Records
---
Amino acid sequence: MTEPAPSLQELEQLTAQALAAAREAATLSELEQVRIRFLGRKSRLSEILRSLPHLPPAQRADIGKRANELKASLDASLATRRQALAAAPAPPSLDVTLPGSAVVQGRLHPISQTIHAILSCFLPLGFEVVEGPEAEFEYYNFDALNIPRDHPSRESFDTFFLELPSSDPAKGRLLLRSHTSPVQIRVMESLKPPLRILVPGKVFRPDPLDASHSFMFHQVEGLMVDERTSFADLKGVLERFLKTLFGEATRARFRPHFFPFTEPSAEVDIACASCVGRGCSTCAQKGWLEIMGCGMVHPNVFKAVGYDPRRVQGFAFGMGVERIAMLQHGITDIRLFFENDLRFLEQF
Ligand code: 2U9
């Protein structure tokens, strides 16, 4: 390919371009690119210098002189710029003066926070935390807990059956557990007394969804078994728990109740802190708030796990976590916990 004939005008343009590029190079590697572009073997200047012998003698002297001047002045500018860049401190790769980007900090769901608060009340009393499966055999959810097939309280819970073949047909079908109590049965089957355990977890009941009911909620249950565990121990432990969770001024009362798995059984109320017993909307004008249920473990439950009810006694208790979290925070609708609305969750 024949190149265009060089002219003095072209050399002037090249000079201006090359010197500007050398001045503007911001790093040593940019400067090297400038050198290659304007002085390299494939550069226009090298081409011009190579073409000198073929130029008419009249132009050769002028073009040759100007081309060599360009080469010399570009060499000099590159050298000056190279020295300046080498002496300058390297541009910082991290600008510590820039404003930082905020770290979005996560937090525990309010229900998890309340579960932790409940568990930590019992840990100093020697209780340990155990968890178990949410899909449970009928045997553990009902029979071992003294809830026989024809018991009315069984009918209202045995709905969430799983369409899975049971891995142990002798223990019945599989269903979503209606309480965490089957975990205590599993623990007693594998450990000898004495034991003190706490069982937090999700439970499932066929309740229609409204402001105070959900088909899924959380429980914390507890169980203590020893050779001489009495109802006095039960009262002492639960009164300590309620004072630790709700404040030392908290007063509790135990009302007789019925549960199939405990005998005797009681429901536990605390004096309403909002109205101090006078009656208000929080306590439905009763002055007392129902907080939990409890009782002495039924002898049939001990028999089911192979404990001798003449040698050991125990107490058990259970509470709904959402109800307690609602009382702690003044929340009036349980559904808020499960909607994943950050405007709600970020308040806790
Ligand atoms: C075993 C033996 C006994 C657990 C107990 C309660 C009383 C109770 C309710 C509170 C509100 C359930 O979430 S709720 O609706 N629970 O009142 N639970 S005694 O008794 C047991 C558990 C396991 C082996």
---
Amino acid sequence: MTSAGATSPRPLVILISGTGSNMQAIVRAAQQRRWRERYRAEVAAVISNRPDAKGLAWAAEQGVPTAVVDHQAYPSREAFDEALAQAIARFDPHGRGLVILAGFMRILTPGFVQHHEGRIVNIHPSLLPAFPGLHTHRRAIEAGCRFAGATVHLVTAELDHGPILEQAVVPILPGDTPETLAARVLTQEHLIYPRAIERWLRDAGA
Ligand code: GRF
């Protein structure tokens, strides 16, 4: 981070691949909880690896800048991540902000994670360290778990394993399907993700 950047605002750059319901919850929280006044932080951009991601249109309607870095246009993960890092740097030139993975369905390379170390967060739809990876709700139901949930964590080179910032617990009800459980967990995700980001901003200072 440059000395000139030490006092610059903290840009929040949100990465999505689909609907972006978590992104929407974060944008709303930033406005309603006055993150700009309180933490000099604002949602600087929403970036997607999929040009058809529904969340892009919603973000644009809110006046949030959007960008697409299409992973299918790059020959390798490293080349895609390099382009993604450059896109993020356009919105956070001093590297003081937070990269927020919100339903972003790409595994990032260790080099990308290291470049943004300590300032990338992700939300995962399980009570980590249980059920890293995909199909978390189906696996929790099949395992006979009584509870499921979601976890906000710092991103490290090991997938779905970084330090936990926030969790929410959701009971698994008789007759639950992965879809009915996912819907209840998603409601909690929209509460814990803004809360975790606000704590990160408070700890990081203005
Ligand atoms: C969420 O359950 C999130 O935990 C997972 O992807 C799902 C979709 O999120 N990573 P969104 O609606 O695109 O934010």
